[in-house]
Amino acid sequence: MKRFWKVFGSALLILSPTVVAVADGEPAFPMLKGPYLGQAPPGMTPEIFAPGVISRSEYEMNSVFSPEGDEFYYVISTTTPEEKEEGHYHYVVMMSKIVDGVWSAPTRLRVIGEYSATDIALAPDGRLYFCSDKPTTWNESEALDLWYVERSAGGWSDPVNLGPTINTAMSETQPAFTTKGKMYFPSEREDTRGGVDIYYSTRNGDEYSEPVNVGSPVNTKFNEGNSFVAPDESFLLFARWGMPKSIDGGKALYISFRRDDGSWTEPVNTLPSAGLHGSLAALSPDGRYLFFSSGGDIYWVDSRVIDRLRDEVFSKESSDDR
Questions:
Q1: Please, what sign has the CA dihedral across residues 265, 268, 273, 276?
Q2: Which CATH superfamily is domain 7-321 in?
Q3: Which of 126, 174, 209, 252 has the most beta carbons within 10 angstroms of its beta carbon?
């Protein structure tokens, strides 16, 4: 089995290739109706999403809703202590959807056979992107590549690798998309400023341009990854780790906002005022909620926390300019 980035000490693991199993002592999947699996919306403090329903005893993370809000995708992983000790990790994609007005019990979405699939993202054109450890002719190492599948009336297509312009012998992960055709993703490629940096590439037809390093102040000599870009490219959320004596223990999300001139603001730690702790963030299709992963559970919070952080950042910049 392939090697995966183990950011924040996450345990990322092996699941049987069938429908989600109901763990001993847990109830069967309930009858749920309404938006967001019928869950009461969160406020400005992060809450576990669908506790006991989606966030259960397995290790759940990395969630996204379809644009219509009628499908919910997420990643799950489990392993034995022995497998974890050996460094063997495996991810699978799960999906729940509305059928006759009721959310279905999650089932496995086999996007790439028995290989791992994680870091899922739905692009504006409907493609489901993910990263996987499936080997290719140019990547026979333990690194991860970016792939996608497309859906038609007959179901999902065979997986398509993004090719050597995007993928290298190192790892490329966590794709996120703007409405104007840019894909942001972390990579360990050769021109990083640190171990892992964030890049972007622009799609033209079925091809992606040569990736561009986002640069400073986002990327540093440390590691930046687990990133998410807003669809309008107005902000970038990411994790930063590898820093000595980190004040947050390596669990905070950082945020940088895009100025009118296209530059990025100095990233700020989101823990003090927003409490965003974890990784793999994504906005809901309506932009009302921010989802992220932490400690084996999926969390959500009112996206107005982003507005509050933006006000803080630009107010400080205005004050510093005086």
A1: positive
A2: TolB, C-terminal domain (2.120.10.30)
A3: 174
